Amino acid sequence: MPQLNPNPWFFIMLTSWMAFSLIIQPKLLSFTSTNPTLNKASTATKTTPWTWPWT
Questions:
Q1: Given this model, what pLDDT does residue 27 score?
Q2: C-alpha–C-alpha distance, residues 24 and 20, integer Å
Q3: How far, in Å, CA of 55 to CA of 49, rounded?
Q4: Is the pLDDT score of 55 beyond 70?
Q5: Cβ contacts of 10 within 8 Å, gap of 6 or more
Q6: CA 12 to CA 19: how far, in whole Å?
Q7: Exposure of 34 in the CB half-sphere (CA atoms within 13 A)
Q8: Terminal CA-to-CA distance of the chain, rounded, Å?
Q9: Spatial distance between the Cα atoms of 43 and 40, rounded to a whole number of angstroms
Q10: Greatest CA span in the chain, whole angstroms?
Q11: How far apart are CA 9 and CA 6, in angstroms?
Q12: DSSP notation for 1-55
């Protein structure tokens, strides 16, 4: 069963994960967010209970 031979595929998987972890991921994380969070004071909204017409 040649598909169970991990010899070439394990090296390819390991190389691709290392390239992603060491090269691509830091470049992607260095971008600033397009929607920066604002430091707003959270206000509690006043909710009114729903009046059901059949009660």
A1: 85
A2: 5
A3: 13
A4: no
A5: none
A6: 11
A7: 1
A8: 69
A9: 9
A10: 70
A11: 5
A12: -GGG--HHHHHHHHHHHHHIIIIIHHHHHTSPPSSPPP-PPP-PPP------TT-
Cα separation values, 47 from 11, 50, 51, Å: 58, 9, 12
Both tokens of 53, joined, read 């017409």
Residue 53 identity: P
pLDDT digits (tens, 9 = 90+) for 37-53: 777 776 777 888 888 88
- Report whether pLDDT(2) > 70: no
Instruction: At 2, list the tokens.
Output: 């040649």
Tokens 């994380």 belong to which residue?
29
